Structure formats: C-alpha cells, structure tokens
C-alpha cells in the first residue's frame, strides 16, 4: 500500500456524497479518498480504444480534472471498440467526442482537450499541469516517450497495451519502483510491431484493459490497495487467464537525462502507405476498386490456392528487374508477407503505386476472403465461407 498521491480537497457537498455513496462505503476508502480524487489532475494520452474506456471510468470515479491528448478523428472502423464514440461522431475530433461523453457522465468533471499528438516537444509542458500520466497509445515511440517524460518529471505513469486477444497493464514510477525501460530496455524492430489496424483487436479487450488501467490510477491517487509497481499484468482473453511477471530496477541502466529521438529509438516506422490489412483488401475487392493484384510466390504455391483475378510474378523476377505492365495501383501478396514486403518496396522504387498485404494470403483466408486453386476441394472452400484453414 502506498500513501495517497494527492492531498484531499474540500469536504464533499451533499450531492457529491449521494453520487459516490457506493464508493464511500468501500472498506478503507471513505470521504478522504474521494476528496483526493476530486483534487486530482490526470493526463491521458490517447482517445481511442483504451482512452475511450478508461477516461469515462475515471470521470465516473470522481477524478476532478482530466486532460486528453489526441490529434485523431473518429472513423467508422473505430466504432466496434471505441465505445465513447458513435456514428454521429464520425469525422469529429476524438478529444471532442470523448469530452462530450465525460460531460454526460458528470458535468462537474473538468476536461482539457489537447488536440495534438504527444511528442517530445509538447508532452513535458503538458504534464507539468497534471499529477499523473496515463498512456493509452498504440505505438512504441509514444510509449517510451511517456515513460521518459514521467520519469524526468518524477510522476507516476500507468500504461496499457492491447493487440489481438492479449493485453498488458503496468505502472512506471521512478524512485518507487521500476519503469517501462526496466521491463523493455529496447523496442522491437519497427517491421515486427503490429498495430491494431494490421493485427486486429478484440473489442471487449479495450474495456477490460482500460478498466484495469483506471483502477490503478484510482489506487495511486487514493492510496487504497496495492498498485502494480514492479509487476506487469498480462491478460489472455481467449483463455480468460491472467498472469503476472515481477521485474525490478535495472541498476546497470544509464541514468535518463533527457528525452530521446523516439522515431530513431524505435526504428523508422513503416510507411503507412506501404501496406494494407487483409480486411482492407477484402473491402477494396468488394467495393470493386480497380487494382492489379500481384502474387509474388512461386507457381506451385499459387496453384494450391490464390486470390482470384490476380497475376503471378515471383519475387525473384522482380528482384531481377521485371515489373508488371500497368498504371493501376498494385497490391502485392505472398503466403505470409516477407516476400511481398520486399517486392512492393522494389516496385515503389521503380515508380509503381504498390502496397503489400500484411499477413499475406493466410490472413486473407482467415477473415473469409475468397481463394481458388487445387487445395480448394480440401481446405479453402470452407475457408472462403469463413470457417478457416489449417495453419
């Protein structure tokens, strides 16, 4: 148990006692903890999957001031998991939509909308006005930036991450326990770090991990319970199991003296225009968009299963200088994606508008995309109906 992070604010008014009556009766909580929440100022990075889950939870719990940092707009593809946004919000700034959600929960909660991307140039200045930082971002560059900014400011960071069916939650607080860099000293290579767009995410995972993050924030502010210091919690939604990994301060790590160039630290991020998801390919085909679909595997592989309507040009021939004769956008795929990534990059260097499909034909089959070939009779016919195929 840690002491409450925030000094209690004024005594609660009668209507606030009514609002929080079920919370006030919790063992070890009481009015003092609620007054700490009311006086607290929490800065949240991200108004997407995690942010749209944890920010309303913080507002409902009684956090007095919440800052939201995000420069994104609401899109249709957000709505299956970002439950604070609705159809009417499409095209709006996420910070505006999320602030409106908070206002509907508790008009007395102050929300500061920072419609900008969190970067090294602005995050330290923003955090100076808050007591605690919460990172609900979706990329490693921002995660390391959040850790370093909080460490230099001497303030706690609650972080969470989600991808596919798995999530993680932890706390970084220099001087009170280890930090994110003690757990993950170096980021993974940029081309191995999937985003939710390309890797997918179970929508309920956002609310599960977001709620756990909000709980850790409440515990830190009030001093109730045992926060996740020196422990990271892993949640597997497919098996409904959790596990913890304990970790300690790395005494050999160099002292942090300033912020880094996080794009360099995490590697040059893949060009967002260089790849598409299998779902995006399926959408384009269903919409009848014109493209050249290029299979860069060998002929015997393509004979087993292929996406109909495409052309075959093995990657070795592209490496040797060959290319398709087309002015259309080129969508390149292979079995998984290593060869198609290489082929698409080579074609772009020669002036083609080329992208590769992340996960290749395997991912396309998994989402129910139609394939044809000699293997159809045994495997891919059922896959085209969305029943999946063997790995």
Which terms summarize this structure?
391 residues; alpha/beta; Rossmann fold; Oxidized Rhodanese, domain 1; 2 domains; five-stranded parallel sheet; elongated; disordered C terminus
What can you see in these coordinates?
The strands form two sheets. The chain has an eight-stranded mixed β-sheet with strand order 3-2-1-4-5-6-7-8, with helices on both faces. A hairpin with a 4-residue loop joins strand 7 and strand 8. It is 35% helix and 16% strand. The protein has two domains: 14-265, Rossmann fold, CATH 3.40.50; 275-384, 3-Layer(aba) Sandwich (Oxidized Rhodanese, domain 1). The radius of gyration is 24 Å and the shape is elongated. The chain has 17 helices and 13 strands. It is α/β, with parallel strands linked by helices. The model is unreliable at 376-391 (pLDDT under 50). The relative contact order is 0.10.
Number of helices: 17
Give the overall form: elongated
Distance between the termini: 46 Å
Strand order of the largest sheet: 3-2-1-4-5-6-7-8
What's the main sheet like? 8 strands, mixed
Rg calc: 24 Å
Structural class: alpha/beta
- CATH class category name of the largest domain: Alpha Beta
Looking at CATH, which topology of the largest domain would you report? Rossmann fold
Percent of sequence in beta strands: 15-25%
Average pLDDT for all residues: 89
